[in-house]
Specification:
Length: 456
């Protein structure tokens, strides 16, 4: 038996114990884990900073956001998932109908390296709160962070191994996918998601995919340009641009385009470390493609990218078929293109194969919220970037190559549950059609009623 198989087997028995606890009993244990993480935030953030190369304050912010979600999942699981009555309808008026969302069993969580706490915990916390045991395979670039989270669980909730980590690269992820877990929560690139889904198809294992993004920011002519430029800089250059729902494209109404470019360029400073050795070459290829197709490097250029560091790059008037526009760059580069109208910006935003999130800047914030409905994305922020990330009651997930299924919020709890419908007959039906010796007269009456109700 391999280590992964043995770990999943241990998780099976832990899942039986964990799933058998009441919502309150699970809540108190989840909150004990939360307190442990919160009390050791400095230690965890230092580890994340060491493994990813991000500044420690950014790592601490990531932990703070993750803990907020954990707290919400722990406190709301009972309310969202617990058995509750639903209307039983006309035909089954003699039944009481109830619905509960029960645990699936063991969830395999496969995580990325860019936010090695916040991102996997978006699945782990909600899966645990829904009553499942979890086997977590962190990215091979951030194994110690993954192990720390599982060790923290074992310390805060000693006894059954409800949360365990298995360490290794894609081969270990593939093994976990094969292992017969009850669901896989995968976060990573669309290319890997396709492989994971193919494996899941073999065993009919359900899957939630949190994929990459090519998120656009739309800047209307009436926008607060200082705020928009600040948000674009944070969303585009923060975490060295390695944010799934970070800003990668900015569409600016033509009348304010030069002014916006000027403000953004002034903020495009600071060299950052990239987490993986492969990433700088990808970023450079995108910048070179944009420039060779006639895009203008307003700040930086191919020379901003060294073997391990990248300084911000601002690219203007980049053709929409350049890979800097069509593919996820995952580096601190921003493509800033002018548009004739917000409608054109919406159309270009939606032309991407990705659909994770977007942001809109406009003084008419209600109008901007209406525009959000036209976007083919799972989330949108008005007059901010990544506003949804810190709202635990909102679901998170994308469409297209950005994935499917939802983490966070009530949808995120249900994602790791099976709906169970139960009816309880209170009295015999006055018109009983569910019997072999059905009375034809009762059937006639039922049909008359049916026509009256639905055929008029
Ligand atoms: P990746 O696809 O290279 O790897 C993700 C995980 O999958 C890793 O743990 C890896 O070991 C594992 N893996 C690799 N091959 C596998 C296989 N055949 N079977 C099972 N598992 C396998 O992604 P990455 O480079 O670690 O992360 C960056 C990507 O993640 C970006 O595209 C980013 O946008 C995306 N991301 C998305 C979200 C979100 O919530 N939507 C959050 C963070 C990151």
């Amino acid at each position: 038996m391999t280590e992964v198989q043995a770990t999943v087997e241990k998780a099976r028995s832990a899942a039986r114990w964990w799933g058998g606890l009441s919502y309150n009993e699970r809540r108190s244990r989840l909150l004990a884990w939360k307190r442990h993480i919160a009390r050791h935030i400095g230690e965890l953030a230092a580890l994340v900073a060491e493994e990813t190369g991000k500044p420690q304050d950014d790592a601490a912010l990531e932990v703070m956001l993750a803990v907020e979600h954990l707290d919400w999942a722990a406190r709301n699981a009972g309310k969202v998932l617990g058995r509750h009555r639903v209307p039983s309808g006309m035909l089954a008026a003699n039944h009481v109908a109830t619905l509960e969302y029960l645990p699936l069993g063991v969830i395999g969580v496969i995580g990325p390296w860019n936010y090695p706490v916040y991102t996997p915990l978006g699945s782990v916390s909600y899966a645990l709160a829904a009553g499942n045991a979890v086997v977590f395979k962190p990215s091979e670039h951030t194994p110690r962070t993954g192990a720390w989270l599982a060790d923290a669980w074992a310390t805060a909730v000693p006894g059954e191994p409800v949360l365990q980590a298995v360490l290794g690269d894609g081969a270990v992820g593939a093994e976990l996918t094969w292992s017969g877990v009850d669901k896989i929560a995968f976060t990573g690139s669309a290319a890997t998601a396709r492989k994971v889904m193919a494996t899941c198809a073999e065993t009919l294992t359900p899957l939630v995919v949190e994929g990459g993004g090519k998120d656009a920011m739309i800047v209307a002519a009436d926008a607060d340009l200082d705020a928009a430029a600040r948000a674009a800089a944070f969303g585009g250059f923060g975490n060295a641009g390695q944010t799934c729902a970070g800003v990668e494209r900015v569409y600016v109404e033509r009348s304010v385009y030069p002014e916006f470019l000027g403000k953004l360029s002034a903020l495009a400073v600071g060299e950052q470390t990239m987490t993986t050795p492969e990433q700088p070459a990808i970023v450079r290829a995108h910048v070179e493609d944009a420039v060779s197709r006639g895009g203008r490097a307003v700040v930086g250029g191919p020379s901003s990218i060294t073997a391990s560091t990248v300084a911000p790059v601002v690219l203007a008037e980049v053709p929409e078929d350049s890979i800097a526009v069509t593919e996820e760059t995952f580096g601190p580069t921003l493509v800033v293109n002018p548009v004739d109208s917000v409608d054109e910006a919406v159309q270009l935003t939606n032309a991407s194969k990705y659909g994770l999130a977007a942001s809109i800047f406009s003084k008419d914030s209600h109008g901007a919220t209406r525009i959000a409905r036209k976007l083919r994305t799972g989330a949108a922020s008005v007059n901010a970037v990544l506003g949804f990330a810190g709202v635990p009651s909102l679901p998170f997930g994308g469409v297209g190559d950005s994935g499917f299924g939802r983490i966070h919020g009530a949808d995120g709890l249900r994602e790791f549950s099976r709906a169970q419908a139960v009816t309880r007959q209170r009295f015999a039906a006055p018109m009983d059609l569910m019997r072999l010796d059905r009375d034809p007269k009762v059937m006639q009456r039922a049909l008359r009623l049916f026509h009256f109700r639905h055929g008029r």
